[in-house]
Every structure is written in structure tokens, then in C-alpha cells.
Amino acid sequence: MTFIIRQMLENDITFVQEIARTSWHHTYEEIIPHDIQDRFLQMAYSSNRLTQRLTTSLFLVVIVNESLVGFANFSNVTHVEAELLAIYLHPDSQGSGIGSALLQRGLNMLPSLSSLFVCSKRKYNCLSGKVIPQASRIR
Q1: Which pLDDT score, from 0 to 100, does residue 117 have?
Q2: Helix, strand, coil tally for the chain in percent (to 5)
Q3: How do residues 87-114 score in pLDDT, each as one tens digit?
Q4: Which residues contact 56 (CB under 8 A, 6 or more apart)?
Q5: 13-27 and 47-56 helices, crossing angle to 10°
Q6: Distance between CA atoms of residues 110 and 98, nearest Å
Q7: Residue 89's CB: how many other CB atoms inside 10 A?
Q8: Which of 3, 26, 120, 128 could form a disulfide with 91 if both were Cys (CB 3.0 to 4.6 A apart)?
């Protein structure tokens, strides 16, 4: 599968909002009622909030066949530490290696990074670890 990973542009906001909505509904369908998901998504993925995140953090999107199918958002905590704020793919694109490539591109764009903080809402746990140079593995 051929795909392009690039920094998010302001005109991607509507597509990012749709990916967030679709992937949240798919992922949390049996955990969180849709009305609560929608209220959260309206706040966290509003146009104003996304514009702010676009200018203050590393925000990448992935394109397949000219369609935006996913995104990842990284925030620097310190010079050598960052947090993966979000990584979402359209359900049809999951399991294809795109998410791994998106994560790797973000790590490559933060070259002085030695630690990445990741919180998994699906399992409700958090991971923190060292980034191994030249690898996407977190331990």
C-alpha cells in the first residue's frame, strides 16, 4: 500500500475531525455512549483547538489514494521527552502498517527524543519508555 505522511495543514481540519469521530465511534462503541463521545470530540477536535494544536505541536496526517485516513499528534514535554497525544486511523486502514509508519515518522521528526509517553485509553493504562535509536520500539 502506498501512502504519504506529511504535516497537517489547516485545510485538513475537517478531515481530521471526521477521522477522530469515525475512529472514536468504532473504538469506544461498547465502552462510552455516543452522546458522551460526541461532546468530547466537539471540544477536543473543534476547529479552534485543532488550529492551536497545529501551531504548537507536531501534527502529522497520512494520505492514501488522495484521502486522509489517519493522524498522529505529538507534544514536546521537554527537549528530550514527548507525549503521543493522539494517533487515530480510519477503521478500514487499521492493521495495514500505516499506524506504525506514522509513529515512526513522528519519532524521526523529534531527533533529540529519548523518551515518549503514551497513554492507551482503550486499555486505560499508560506506558513510558526510552526510544531506541533507529527503531520504533518503546520499552
Answers
A1: 80
A2: 40, 30, 30
A3: 999 998 888 899 999 999 998 888 888 8
A4: 75
A5: 100
A6: 19
A7: 22
A8: 26
